[in-house]
Structures are given as C-alpha cells and as structure tokens.
Amino acid sequence: MPFHHRNFEKLGDTFQLNLGLGKHVVFSRDQDLAILALQKQQKDFIKSPIQTKDLVKYVGKGLLTVEGEEWKTQRKLLQPTFYKKNIYQLLDLMQDAIVKQLQNIKTDQPIDVFPIFNDLAFKVVAKSLFSDAISNEQISRLQYITEEAQNMLVKELRQPYKKWWFIWSGELKKKLLLTKEALQIIEGIITKRRKQSSQKEDLLDMLLHTTYEDGSSMTHEKLLDEILILFIAGHETTSNALSFTTQLIARNPDVQQKLIQEVDQNKLRTPLDVLKNSPFTTAVIEESMRLYPPVYFIDRVNTKTLKFKDYTIPKNTSLLFSLYEMHRKQEFWEEPLNFIPERFLNGKNHAAYYFPFGAGPRKCIGNNFAMYEIILVMQELFAKYQIEFTNQPIEILPLISLKPKNAILHFNYRK
Ligand code: HEM
C-alpha cells in the first residue's frame, strides 16, 4: 500500500505500471474514471479474469463471478431477495448468531478480534441462509473449505510461476475436491428442505421460491453455486470491517463514549428498532470503511479503447481502482487520515468519491445485510463491554480483501 501511495503521489491519480512480457496495469484513484467504468459506461467494461476465471475454479459460477447476460439474469432474479424488507425478516436469526458468537470474548487477557469476527460473520451468513438446518460441524467444515479456496487463490496469484507445481504436487486437485465437498454439504441441506412442507423464514426459502420472468426457478446447480458465492462474498469482507471498526473505536475514546450513549438508548429495542435508531453507529461504520475499505481495489478490463482526460487506454487493459486511496483524498475529506464519524452526519452526499460497496449495477448486493449485521454487533458489544487498544498503529494485510493484522484488543466489562 505505501508503495502504491508513493506511486500515486509521484505519477498522479492514474498511472500505468509495466509488468513485463508486454503486460501492463493501469492503477487509478480517480473517482471520475471509476464511476465511468463501474456506472456510466459500465457496458464497455468486464471484470478481470481473476474473478471470472481463477475464482470460478474454486467457487463456481455465481453472481460475483459471471458476466454479461448470465450476470444480468441472475442479478434480476436475486435482487428482490436482498431488498431491505426481506433482510428485516432475517434479523432475529442474525441477532441469535451474534449473541452466541460474542460469548467467545474473553476479558482476562487481550485478544485478537479477527478470528472471533471471522467466525461470527460466517455463522451469520450460514444461519441467515439455512436457520437451524445446518449443524455447527457443517458450518466449521464449510468455513474451512471456503478459506482454503481463498488461500489457494492468493497463492496462485502471488506465485503464478509455481502453477505447474500446484498441479504436479496434487495441491490444486486437493483444493478442488474440497470445493466439491462444500457443494455436497449444501446440496444435502437443500434436498432435505425441498422435501419439507413447512415454510422457514430464511434466505434458502426465499431463494427456493424466487422465479425468473418466465416463472421458472433456479436449477439445482445454479442454486448451489449462488449459495457458495454468498459465503465467499459475505463473510471475510464483513469480518474485516468489524475488526477495523472496533480497532478505530478503541483508539478514539470520545467516539466510544458517544457510541455507548446511543447503544444505551437502544438497549430495550428490537433489532429492527435498533437499526432505525443508530445514526451515530452507522456513521462510525461508514467512517471505518472510508479509512479501511474491506474491498480496497475494484478491477475491470476495458473492452473498447478508452479515452479519459489526457489518456488513451488501449482495449483489454487491466484497470485497478484503489478505493483505499480514493477514500483518503485531501480534496474531498478534511483531515483525511483522522477518524471522524461526524462527517457522515452533516447531510453531505459523498456518493461521488466514496463507495465501499462498489458502484453501478454490480454494486454489492449484500450491502444492507452487511450494514445491519455490523450495527447489531456494535449494539451487542458495547452494551456489555468497553474496549482498549494494545498496539499502535493499525496494521493491514492487503490480500484479496484488506485484512487486519494483529487486531489485538482488550475487552473490559462496562461498569
Ligand atoms: C462490509 C461488507 C462488504 C463489503 C465491503 C462488500 C463490498 C463489495 C463490493 C465492493 C462489491 C463490488 C465488486 C465489483 O464491482 O467488482 C461487492 C459485490 C458483491 N457482494 Fe459484497 N461486500 C460486503 C458484504 C457482502 C455480503 C454480506 C454479501 C452477501 C450476503 C455480499 C455479496 C456480494 C455479491 C454476491 C456481490 C456481487 C454482485 C454482482 O456482481 O452483481 N457482500 N461487494
């Protein structure tokens, strides 16, 4: 990251990096170019092969990893499931999983919050999807498999020269077998559910009843792929956000105090009422995702020659938009490196240069789900605990997502 920052400072908001062998990448923190690629002229851009080929190997073809007509049809089908009113129905399931998971917090010693939030975020997706039809063993196994798939993808991307070794050593095959096992676990749950007549209020039931324009439902295979994708897209991003948010709160006692005041006012409220009465908590989360956007890069490839400002970018160029850099630009944010949640409370619209959930038609479908989950975690957490930081500064691990490193915090029961 500092490497990119230096390059942006030296070379400007958009620059090209030569990777050798005739390959090059365009890095940009220009919000107008990003909006053009993601929204205004999105028809002339596709996702990079990292998502539409490399990731597909491990997680199949779901909303996140498909393109063109296939994507359009699936997005149209799945969008209503993620409307606010449908996510509201999942709040009790979410809340239940959150309360159980937060029991793992210890107060007698400093703890790394990332593994706790990572398990929590995975369980919240699992329970929202399947309610009580999934066992704890199945959840642990699915979590292990999806994380192994992501680790393998990181390895492949970082060490492309070792591709033959991954194949020859059997490592790749082993990982692909794991993906098969994950699909079998999900398939078992779906098959059982199809035989039940009673209705459940979970995502699986919604997905089973959702239909295309011609009245048909998703094929069994498509449903399996979409569910696996929800696990992949929905858990690490959320746990990163939770970890960075709590670290920032611990380092800013005034913010923590204000947050606790709001949490106390919400103490006796239902989860839905908590969501509706948490403006400061929401601002805290938004400010945290400004400084540490869990998806810190969005990639696209232009399918046509692109003319933008003084640049002509030949077609089939990889473009990487740095949300991390964009969210820290002096021209848009006063004291850009400081954590000031109030900037999200002054009624100003930041949509032109702040988009932690992406922008345009491929914007995160789970954005409400994620925000509601994080607000409910903050409510549960700060109703019981106060937190202190133990190490400076916040450390980052920029992999596929922006992960925290050594997110060690000390929890104390509130007096
Ligand atoms: C704080 C948490 C989250 C962040 C920061 C985040 C961020 C993003 C971003 C930036 C994109 C767009 C990527 C692109 O344009 O290339 C995206 C797409 C997506 N996200 Fe999220 N996400 C989060 C949570 C979730 C959750 C909880 C779910 C599901 C339960 C989810 C499901 C998806 C899916 C399926 C897509 C692909 C949408 C499409 O291409 O049509 N995300 N997310």
From TrEMBL:
The keyword Ion transport does not apply. InterPro entries: Cyt_P450 (IPR001128), Cyt_P450_CS (IPR017972), Cyt_P450_E_grp-I (IPR002401), Cyt_P450_sf (IPR036396), Cytochrome_P450_Monoox (IPR050196). Pfam families: p450 (PF00067). SUPFAM superfamilies: Cytochrome P450. Heme binds at C364. Signal peptide: none annotated. GO terms for molecular function: heme binding; iron ion binding; monooxygenase activity; oxidoreductase activity, acting on paired donors, with incorporation or reduction of molecular oxygen. Gene3D superfamilies: Cytochrome P450. It comes from the Bacteria. The keyword Oxidoreductase applies. This is Cytochrome P450. It comes from Psychroflexus salis. The lineage of its organism: Bacteria, Pseudomonadati, Bacteroidota, Flavobacteriia, Flavobacteriales.
